[in-house]
Fold each of these.
Amino acid sequence: MKKILICFFFLAGFSCFAQIERVEPPNWWTGFKDTGLQLMVYGNNIGNATPSIDYPGVSVENVEKADSPNYLFIDLAIGEAQAGTFDITFAMEDGSKQVYEYELKEREKPASAYVGFDNTDAIYLITPDRFANGDKSNDSFDYLNEKTIDRSDAYARHGGDIRGIIDHLDYIEEMGFTAIWPSPLLINDMESGSYHGYAMTDFYKVDPRFGTLKEYKELSDKAADRGIKLIMDQVANHSGVEHWWMDDLPFDNWINFQEKFENGEDLVYSNHRRTTNQDLYASKTDKKGMTEGWFVATMPDLNQENPFLAQYLIQNSIWWIETLGLGGIRQDTYPYPDKAFMSDWAGAIMKEYPNFNIVGEEWSLNPLLIRYWQDGVDNAYDSNLKSTMDFAMQDKIVTGLKAEETWGTGLVEIYEGLANDFAYADPENIMIFPDNHDKSRIYTQLGEDVAKTKMTIAYMAVLPRIFQMYYGTEILMDDSENPGDHGLIRTEFPGGWEDSQVNAFTGKGLSEKKSEMQEFVKKVMNYRKDSQALHAGETKHFAPQDGTYLITRKKGKEVVVLILNKNQEAVTLDLERFSELNLKGKTFKNLISEKSFQWGSSLELPEEGVYFFTTKME
Ligand code: CA
């Protein structure tokens, strides 16, 4: 974008009262279904200007002042306009004029080519500050509030960046992942804790410590060259308290509890009673307390009921999809913003990009809530959201693996958990994960039990679900020293820093146990990548018995049989119980040991663990 400020000279001398500091979105495109565009203009006293545009196909439909004199909202209609640049001329009250050059770009590819992640994908979730430092020159900047890196502090910046991800795309591809979800890469110019990324201070700017917009685009392009989708982590609920607009908010209701914030009064925090979104009997007080309260003191709660903010956020998401060629969005804290807005937001995106996908974060162990947010369910709320997160099933799997095997506990909890799928509009579009950036590492959750960690990953990988895993789980990264500690969960990936003693990218110095786990994940993910049975197969499972649980996926000639065995001693599995699968005589290969066997009447399971059998793929 090129910004041109022209001040006109008058008899009395030079008049340049208004400085246009920002026009957002910084550019737009031709050819969207929605031909409206609302520009937010920011500059000293710009609210008193009268804008005009002389460009074929573009017209000014409406101009709105804000509560602050330094904002102007301009509604444009972009009909049959050609791509190109045009001048927006602002006539000021004093007769002076300012001209701002704005660009309408041509879209690079058709809307249908923006294909979102789906259940054929395995997503690698990355905390960019902690994955790899590919560019030491961007580690810190004097002009930012948090000035230094400190790798000895788990809550300080460590220097990881976009370049570090680009540098290791080969590793991610070889591991069998088909999508990456880096936690937010936009600027968090906060005093502290900026590494996590969820306190944005400019929704249009990449954090320079992560890199540049050009590098973000390079990441997307280079990932796409390998068939890897880029998912952007976005936050509509809140910004960082250091957001540039916090000193001069456009409207009196731009954020919730704005008056309290501006008067320095005690803030009101969210009551976190997320069920008020569904509860037929919820009081107004509780509903308000949930959606309007602030998440934390450093993250002002945005008021999406303000239509200008709502439009701002929708256009911001579309701008990023179009700019980066995204393969999906992960939306943070989904139940916290105004839910009518979230429906509009997701709807607007899906209208422009029919093949796109968005996953919303609802941290709930209650399948009814996971169901509620997913599009296609017959309830009073039309969410437009294709994908939700399966915290419920994640919990069942961990609980079931850890529990003693009894009639009602152990593997049966997993089996019965999966039975909840009947309630979902689209279970295959729900995202399952062993762990994420906010949860203990799966290895820690399971008491550092390698066999159970493998069971979890393999089981999740064969479920009719989108699969997501947190970076480093493939090498048994843990937070066992202080389970649940966020800084510890987000530990540096070994090999991502020049002085790393161990390099998990090359395997140098990696313990045998960790290497073996890495190989295991690699095999499972790479199999999953091309498996029709796992992408589109029929699912069937049998009630667990005597500490074993069998689940199959089948498509055409391809059959996957996964057996979880919790017995420490060797057991013999009676295969006659599974005769309805018609597998007798079929040759199977153990994906991990690569040994073949013929399905007969019984099967020896020599030890505790996961047995991943596949027929040959045709
Ligand atoms: Ca760096």
Amino acid sequence: MIVTVKSQCSQREFDKLISWIKSLGLDTHLSQGANQTVIGLIGDTSKVDMELLQSLEMVEAVTRIQEPFKNANRKFHPQDSIIDVSGVKFGGKHFPIIAGPCSVESEAQVIAIAEAVKASGATLLRGGAFKPRTSPYAFQGMGVKGLDILRKAREITGLPIVTEIMSEKFIDDFQDVDLVQIGARNMQNFDLLKAVGRLGKPVLLKRGLANTIQEWLMSAEYIMSEGNDNIILCERGIRTFEPYTRNTLDLSAIPILKEKTHLPVIVDPSHASGLSRLVKPMSLASVGAGADGLIIEVHNNPAKALCDGAQSLRPEQFDDVVKAIDVMLPLVNKER
Ligand code: PEP
Ligand code: MN
């Protein structure tokens, strides 16, 4: 971090500023020019309040040269992190596919879908028991009963389960969930992030509806700062002005994240587009952009789905998508 000090700053004020910086455990490097003085802050500047520094009368400008996310930063961890979710690996050469319904509706529905997606090559089962709905009158999910159904499906198929936590209140019910999902709407629910950090289970951290990549990485940082490094990021589209699709899939986030962080990055083409016919092209585009996996909504009767039917694939459509992905994977040096 670099602090540029105004030329009219008195020596007393300047000395005070230097001793305050040093009190934060940082070293300083001074560069005295004719019109201004530049202070280089050396050490871990992630805890420095940039806005506070900027607001000081004597300060002309503050420039951060080191990113505020430390644990997630690739500079401090050059190799890809490999996240193991009950035996299924994410990161590096691995390309797992998560599939299942938007929400858990019944035992028969989940088991039928789980068996179908497993036969096509999915290695994890998704399904929401707690659903974040825009309307309080829409189906809110089956809650803890839905978690029991997912466990049953895991027992029958052997597929590890991925499901969303919406409240810290239910943290104990997620102790045996293989991959705990933080949904887009909770990406900046900091108390929930800290709670899943302490829970210690692998976390699927979705990007917020209108959040920058850096804000997203700072949310990962919240989980990591509690000692949990098992995070998989999920790009699920962001809110833009375009109404033809539910969201806009930010494909460029994938290579940017691969530069900035060592954490695996997967894509959710279902929520990103909102349209089942876009799931295949967006899945293939994600493979091409360097994604580390996919999470796809599949329903055995999309027309009757209680949630997100329009973006859900039928099992045979999912099968076709997996076959197309398999053609592409060798081109990007990945394998399922
Ligand atoms: C979901 O995965 O069903 C979901 C609600 O996703 P998102 O949080 O990305 O909207
Ligand atoms: Mn959904």
